[in-house]
Amino acid sequence: MIERYTRPRMGRIWSEEYKFQKWLEIEILACEARAQLGEIPPEAVERIKRKAKFQLERIQELERITHHDVVAFLTAVGESLGEDARYLHLGMTSYDVLDTALSLRLKEAADLIIQGLKKLQEVLREKAQLYKNTVIIGRTHGIHAEPTTFGLKLALWYEECRRNQDRIQRIKELISYGKISGAVGTFATVPPSVEEYVCQKLGLLPAPISSQIISRDRHAEYLTSLAIVAGSLEKFATEIRNLQRTEILEMEEPFARGQKGSSAMPHKRNPIVCEQICGLARLVRAYAMAALENISLWHERDLTHSSVERVILPDSTILVDYILHRFMEVVRGLMVYPENMRFNLEKTGGLIFSQRVLLALMEKGLPRDQAYQLVQRNALAAWENKCDFRDLLRQDTEVGQYLNPQELEACFDLDYYLKYVEFIFSRVFH
Questions:
Q1: Which of 91, 194, 265, 417 could be bridged to 189 by S-S, CB 3.0 to 4.6 A?
Q2: Class of 94-344 in CATH
Q3: Mean pLDDT, the chain, as a whole number?
Q4: Out of 67, 141, 267, 299, which one is annotated catalytic?
Q5: At residue 343, does pLDDT exceed 70?
Q6: What is the largest CA-CA distance in the chain?
Q7: In a 3-state reduction of DSSP, which class is residue 51?
Q8: Paired residues of 335 in beta bridges
Q9: Is the Cβ–Cβ distance between 273 and 330 less than 8 Å?
Q10: 351-411: what CATH class?
Q11: Is 262 a catalytic residue?
């Protein structure tokens, strides 16, 4: 499934080739900063900028020997520079390059996810307007509650996506910090001006303080925010899965021509995309937990976070980008059945209007407990005997003492539940 993912921009961010390109960019900028301090001849910097290159295969060959990716990278690039290679990585530690490049890549990944969230909001807004007044039963605890509209469901999703966009924007800013402060963050071997120059050129801010690495609380918040996005998408997909159940069938995710739902049962049309989204959201949550555990390291750093991040950072961003776009496809092609919504709305024989009757009786002066018992008595009888709730209320002489036939009928007016739909839409889509 992921192998068929056709969003190359996110995959490119996490490619080895792109990573080493960013490393080289940082090394060259550090040389430029050193030249401004008079520590590297300007002509050497120009030669480095002109000649520096690497071959991915050569780096991998060297890493098999050195067991150190940065040393292998520097050696491979150094082979293209000759004597000028001595100016690379001057006074720097590996994570000056790794963490600064990682921040760049996470920043770019956040941009792609923000773009995806914006596009999803556009689709949800369009669908919400289309189904603004399409009545559907609201359910709490899986049980019929009171009428709402399908447009309001979609508007709720839209607003949640907007909050998620704000979250990703915040974590983009939180992660946009670089670090070039030396082996334990003291700047003893690389002056702060080098860090400031490199970060400014890259569109990052210098971390106010760092150890050998940028503190991992930033990365943990990044991944927990991605987990929230995935959680929202799982929530939306779960709703569609539930409403696609045979006994409900108020909507279905798209089913392509030639698609098969089951090897054994030709009638099956399963919500497989929504199920995939729900499954992959579990992975993103698990990765967030690993990121939280990466916060605690020994002293100025250890290596326990490194191997974990090689998996959780690319996977989390790619997965969230993937399920965002998959869910967008579902919403665009969603098959909606208003006639089934109406059928299900009427399935309880009017029980969903019980609160309206309760409030009407209270308006006539009945204490709440007395009014509640009166309504509940009829509601339970209607449910147990499969009778029409309104008919039972009409026959109840005690109810008739307080509500005349017109007042009782008014309690079953569906439009009552739609009177603030426009108001809610104006608040959401302002």
A1: 91
A2: mainly alpha
A3: 94
A4: 141
A5: yes
A6: 103
A7: helix
A8: 252
A9: yes
A10: mainly alpha
A11: yes
Burial 229-243 (b: 16+ CB within 10 A, else e): bbbbbbebbbbbbeb
**Residue of 68, 193, 262, 296 marked active site:** 262
Q: What pLDDT score was predicted for residue 2?
A: 36
Angle between helices 16-36 and 94-130 (to 10 degrees): 120
Amino acid at 327: F
DSSP 186: S
- Contacts with 299 (C-beta within 8 Å, 6 or more apart), sequence order: 211
Question: Is 94 annotated in the active site?
Answer: no
Average pLDDT, stretch 79-99? 96
Helix (H) or strand (E) holding 59: helix 56-66
Give the residue-averaged pLDDT of 56-85.
Answer: 96
- CATH 1.10.275.10 corresponds to the domain 2-87: yes
Scored b (16 or more CB within 10 A) or e, 106-123 reads bbbbbebbbebbeebbeb
Write the DSSP symbol of residue 396: -
Answer yes or no: are the C-beta atoms of 189 and 240 closer than 8 Å. no
Q: Label the pairing between strands 177-178 and 205-206.
A: parallel
Can you list the pairs that 267-275 forms with residues at least 24 positions away whose Cβ atoms lie under 8 Å? Answer: 271/237, 271/240, 271/241, 271/244, 273/237, 273/326, 273/327, 273/329, 273/330, 274/237, 274/238, 274/240, 274/241, 274/244, 274/327, 274/330, 275/237, 275/241
Burial of 379 (0-12, 13-18, 19+ CB in 10 A): buried
> Does the pLDDT value for residue 275 go beyond 80?
yes
Q: HSE on the CB side for 249, CA within 13 Å?
A: 7
Mean pLDDT of 363-380: 95
- Tell me how far apart the alpha carbons of residues 75 and 69 are, in angstroms, rounded to a whole number: 10
Q: What burial class does residue 66 get, using C-beta atoms within 10 Å of its C-beta: 0-12 exposed, 13-18 middle, 19+ buried?
A: middle
- The two three-digit tokens of residue 49, written as one number: 């900028």
CA 194 – CA 38 distance, rounded (Å): 12
User: Residue 32 is encoded by which pair of tokens?
Assistant: 């430029």
For 138, phi then psi, to 5°, come to -80, 145
| Angstrom distances, CA of residue 105 to CA of 9, 100, 109, 167, 313 | 11, 9, 6, 18, 10
Q: What does the block give as tokens for 172? A: 């983009």
Domain extents for the chain? Answer: 2-87, 94-344, 351-411
